[in-house]
């Protein structure tokens, strides 16, 4: 049985660690491994997001005011990715069709390596509904010797709802 559907904006992932880039955000909901947050980015732009961390891994979804894309960030304290390097990623929510992207390497404020890519507004609702309804997310790194992840999505329906409320109020 699937989790109840979430309309509009919502999402997040699990089993992942790195600090938020912004000291101006606060947690607005927690469920399972997941947290929804809202506030302002380092440059003062309003932002809403969801994240999970643990075992040296990090996953977040962020939507900034004025953007027509949602930002997805992955991180690991074990990665040796160069800033600007490209990495193909395949993500699959349960048995849904895969999401494919080419991510770009960057550094979190603590120095850990990360990968970042965007999901366009035209695909945002589908992405968030799959995220909120699914039980797990499998992430694979094509053409790399980096092991893939399986993220526990327990709690994503609840934090996706909080994320959607944040977007409605702040963005």
How would you state the average pLDDT, rounded?
85
Given helix and strand content, the structural type is alpha+beta
Q: Tell me about the biggest sheet?
A: 10 strands, antiparallel
Radius of gyration: 15 Å
Helix content: 10-25%
CATH topology: Immunoglobulin-like
Overall shape: it is: globular
Name the CATH homologous superfamily. Invasion associated locus B (IalB) protein
**Please, how many domains?**
1
Uncertain regions: pLDDT < 50 for 5+ in a row? Answer: 1-22
Run of helices and strands: EEEEEEEEHEEH
What does this structure look like?
This protein has 171 residues and is α+β, with helices and mostly antiparallel strands. The protein has one domain (24-170): Immunoglobulin-like (Sandwich), CATH 2.60.40.1880. Helix content is 16%, strand content 44%. It contains two helices and ten strands, in the order ββββββββαββα. The chain has helices at 121-133, 156-170; strands spanning 24-31, 34-40, 46-54, 57-64, 69-76, 86-93, 99-107, 113-120, 136-142, 149-152. The chain has a ten-stranded antiparallel sheet with strand order 1-2-3-4-5-8-7-6-9-10. β3 and β4 (57-64) form a beta hairpin. α1 runs antiparallel to α2 (156-170). The protein is globular and about 40 Å long. The N and C termini lie far apart (33 Å).
